[in-house]
Write a sequence for this structure.
């Protein structure tokens, strides 16, 4: 464990600079705070606030808030020690550009065209395999469902693991960043004659469930939403099933999504309440080693 003075030093890493390194820029000022589209969820109205002087954030979509270490945990799903490690390696922009909002129309992460995938290949990169293993996903399972993608983000070229949706878009993750390409859509794995449908918020939740129960393929028809905003595209099809097993995050967005499923009249099994009531999501439960 690092001494407290080093932790305090890490907490002084600028949230504005960190977000800028991810290609996330503010939309406007609100008093002394900067306002962003949430880098965690797709939204039409910006609700992510940063107080540069206090170096704290508040995502009003989920009511998540805190310092830079908490932000890294929130965006990447990693543990506190891992977030500290990430920030120790972070190289801040030495002179952030002057922020100007005149005529600017910012796009939420994943909705704009700044992330451009330049190459897709089988997952073999050792650093990326270490990343998924750190999240307790076995390599064979990761290689089955994930791809290695090279991409451009502004002027930066880097790589991450990619999870493809049914319209050819990708969810992209690495230890330092998460985002997506257009089109943003669901990923479905149909199972013939399935009377139950599994619903996951993100692909790491799906892979965590597979790892937890030592499965390589789902036994029921399974849909990964890739964002709770995509749930509306699935609701009408629920009438074809007797039960929905939902594995959403333990936050307001996840609870609203679960209620939307229940409102269709289908029988609902709440995986969050059963398996990870004390964790934010299935991967948090898996990496805690308590299963």
């Amino acid at each position: 464990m690092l001494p407290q003075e080093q932790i305090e030093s890490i907490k002084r890493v600028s949230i504005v600079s960190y977000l800028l390194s991810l290609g996330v820029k503010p939309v406007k000022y609100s008093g002394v705070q900067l306002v962003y589209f949430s880098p965690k969820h797709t939204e039409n109205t910006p609700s992510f606030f940063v107080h540069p002087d206090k170096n704290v954030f508040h995502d009003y979509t989920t009511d998540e808030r805190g310092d830079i270490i908490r932000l890294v945990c929130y965006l990447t799903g990693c543990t506190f020690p891992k977030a500290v490690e990430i920030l120790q390696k972070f190289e801040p922009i030495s002179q952030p550009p002057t922020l100007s909002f005149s005529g600017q129309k910012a796009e939420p992460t994943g909705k704009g065209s700044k992330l451009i995938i330049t190459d897709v290949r089988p997952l073999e990169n050792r650093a990326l395999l270490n990343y998924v293993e750190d999240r307790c996903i076995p390599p064979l399972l990761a290689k089955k469902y994930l791809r290695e993608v090279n991409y451009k983000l502004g002027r930066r070229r880097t790589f991450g693991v990619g999870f493809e949706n049914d319209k050819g878009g990708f969810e992209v993750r690495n230890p330092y960043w998460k985002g997506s390409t257009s089109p943003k859509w669901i990923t479905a794995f149909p199972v013939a004659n399935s009377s139950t449908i599994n619903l996951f918020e993100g692909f790491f939740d799906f892979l965590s469930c597979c790892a937890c129960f030592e499965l390589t393929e789902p036994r029921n028809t399974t849909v990964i939403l890739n964002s709770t905003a995509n749930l509306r595209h699935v609701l009408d099809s629920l009438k074809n099933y007797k039960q929905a097993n939902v594995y959403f995050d333990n936050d307001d967005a996840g609870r609203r999504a679960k209620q939307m499923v229940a409102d269709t009249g289908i029988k609902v099994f709440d995986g969050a309440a059963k398996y990870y009531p004390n964790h934010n999501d299935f991967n948090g439960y898996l990496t805690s080693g308590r299963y």
In short: Confidence is low (pLDDT under 50) at residues 93-113.
